[in-house]
Structures are given as structure tokens and as C-alpha cells.
Amino acid sequence: MSSNNVLSHLTFTNRVAKRAQYEALEFSLTRGVCVRNTSHANPADHEYLVIVCEGIPIACECPADDRYYGACKHRVGIAIRTPLLQAATDHSLVADGGTQIE
Q1: Whole-number mean pLDDT of the chain?
Q2: CA separation (Å) from 49 to 31, 67, 99?
Q3: I need a labelling partner for 10 at 20 to 30 A (CA). Which of 31, 52, 62, 69 fits?
Q4: pLDDT digits over 25-39, tens only?
Q5: Using one digit for the tens of pLDDT, what is the confidence trace for 65-75?
């Protein structure tokens, strides 16, 4: 699934899209994607788990994803980084015992 196709599944504001692009986000694969915002003085206080299901970032633990309508910058940040999104999708298949179909 291309990043444009993934983005069509998410609702977000222009402000969120811009922040997802320019903020210093770091990513690591865990039981989802751990997103750390190193733009903050204490990045550990700004680290959230994003769940990717069937190639779409569907949920984030951050307060904004729960509080506001639409996807947060962490979910959009993953969606616009196609290699990361693909790795997260592949990783979730391995973690749940599924198989990837080429």
C-alpha cells in the first residue's frame, strides 16, 4: 500500500501533516512502532506506541490522538514514511504468527 493510499485512510489537519514532517521523530519497532519526539528537552516524556494494523497506523497512545478528532502527528509520521510503514507491517505479521503474501 503506497503512502498516498494510507493517508487516504486517515483524517488529519494541515498542522498535523507539517509537524509530522519537520519534528525530529525517531522510530523503533516493538509490538507496534515506538515514536519518540526528540524535539523536546526530555524526549523520554514524549514517547508513544502507535499500533499498525493491515498497513494503516490506527491508534496512538499520545494524548492528542485521544483528545482531538483525526490522526495525531505520530500516526501521520509513520504513514508518510513508506519504508517504516512496510517494516511495521512486516514486523506485526511476524509477531502474530501470520504470513506475508507477496
Answers
A1: 88
A2: 8, 16, 23
A3: 31
A4: 999 998 899 999 999
A5: 999 999 999 99
The DSSP 8-state label assigned to residue 90 in this structure reads: H
Contacts of 26 (CB under 8 A, 6+ apart): 35, 36, 37, 38, 43
CA neighbor of 6 nearest in space, from 77, 62, 64, 61: 77
Q: Which three cell numbers stand for residue 74?
A: 505520530
CB 65 within 8 A of CB 72: yes
Q: List C-alpha distances in Å: 21 to 65, 73, 76, 81.
A: 17, 9, 9, 9
- Compare 97 and 1 and report the one with higher pLDDT: 1
- Residue 93 confidence (pLDDT): 55
Helices marked H in 1-102 — which ranges? 3-7, 14-22, 63-67, 73-79, 82-96
